Amino acid sequence: MTATIRYGLLGWPVKQSVSPQMQGTGFRALGIDASYELLPIEPEHFDQRIPELIRDGFAGWNITIPHKGPMLRHLDEIDPVAAQAESVNTVCNRDGRLHGWSTDGFGLERAVNEAFNVKIAGGTFVFWGTGGAARATATHFAHHGARSLTLVNRTVAKAEALGESISRFAPDCELRILSPADDDALRGTFADCSAIIQSSSVGMDGTSLSIPAALLAAGMNVMDMIYKQTPLLKAAAQLGCNTADGRAMLLYQGVKSFEIWTGRDAPVDAMRAALDTALDA
Q1: Domain residue spans of the chain
Q2: Catalytic entry in 15, 68, 228, 256
Q3: What per-residue confidence (pLDDT) applies to 204?
Q4: Does domain 5-102+248-280 have CATH number 3.40.50.10860?
Q5: Helix (H, G, I), strand (E, B) or coil at 129
Q6: What sign does the CA torsion over 204, 118, 110, 183 have?
Q7: What are the pLDDT digits (tens) for 212-257?
Q8: Residue 205's pLDDT is what?
Q9: How large a percentage of the chain has pLDDT more than 90?
Q10: Beta strand 242-244 pairing with 221-224
Q11: Other residues' Cβ atoms within 10 Å of the Cβ of residue 24
């Protein structure tokens, strides 16, 4: 009798995650005897826990904040795009050797295409906020042929650092760095871009508006990585924008992780239904 294959999510905190419902449904749909566990790890204990996970027989895991960067130092092999982004969210344990990927950019790419019928190659995108989520996804977009990226952040130096990192491996991708106060430049950029992607945590409280409504106009494509209807999405919809929250991104990054671990096509419809049920509970 074979043992249940163990997977999990490393982070601090992780109790709010709905990944166990999504991944567990995927395993059951394909008849895979596997579990998916929440693994809360305090930052000061992170380094000592990784060897323990290997000893405990975990076949792989996801990583969320604040461990996506620290995970890098434990890897034996890493996907080049994840290395460039300095961010890993998926690990596969192969006979004690750890292989790492970032599936966040794939998740956002699929979500943008699904919501707006927009392809990354040749597209122009605005990332509002340049924290960890934007770092992984903007790097992926540049690597996959985006024509231009505009990075917007209150701390301009942070956006500049991300831009410099991207330009080293994607010199053909046009980069613009703006602050939220650059109204005129932002209006012009918004009017011409393929999609505006809100990638900061502003709006999670349900009251704060991350992007000023005055910058938006009917017909613009606006996505918020937060996976619920935020004040931004509500305001954008009222103005006639095409809008989408972060659910599909969450789904597809999980789908990619599932496929890396199992080597099989993920049951996307079943995983989406489980994700929606968990988020709407």
Answers
A1: 5-102+248-280, 105-245
A2: 68
A3: 62
A4: yes
A5: coil
A6: negative
A7: 999 999 999 999 999 889 999 999 999 999 999 999 999 999 999 9
A8: 66
A9: 92
A10: parallel
A11: 17
Direct distance between the N- and C-terminal alpha carbons of the chain, in angstroms, rounded to an integer: 36
Token pair recorded at residue 112: 């943008």
- Token pair of 38, please? 């929440």
pLDDT band at 99 (very low <50, low <70, confident <90, very high): very high
Torsion sign over Cα 214, 237, 155, 162: negative
The H or E element spanning position 85 is helix 80-85
Asked if residues 212 and 189 have their Cβ atoms less than 8 Å apart, the reply is no
d(CA 202, CA 210): 5
Do the first three CATH levels of 5-102+248-280 and 105-245 match, i.e. the same topology?
yes
SS3 state of residue 225:
coil
Omega cis (within 30) before 70: no
Fold of 105-245: Rossmann fold (3.40.50)
Tokens 């060897």: give the residue. Answer: 51
H or E element that contains 36: strand 34-40
pLDDT at residue 207 above 70? no
Of 161, 103, 170, 89, the residue nearest 137 (C-alpha): 103
The two structure tokens encoding residue 16: 């709010």
10 by DSSP, 3-state: which? Answer: strand
Q: Which two tokens stand for residue 266?
A: 């993920």
Has 68 been annotated as catalytic?
yes
Residue 196 · residue 220 · CB < 8 Å:
yes
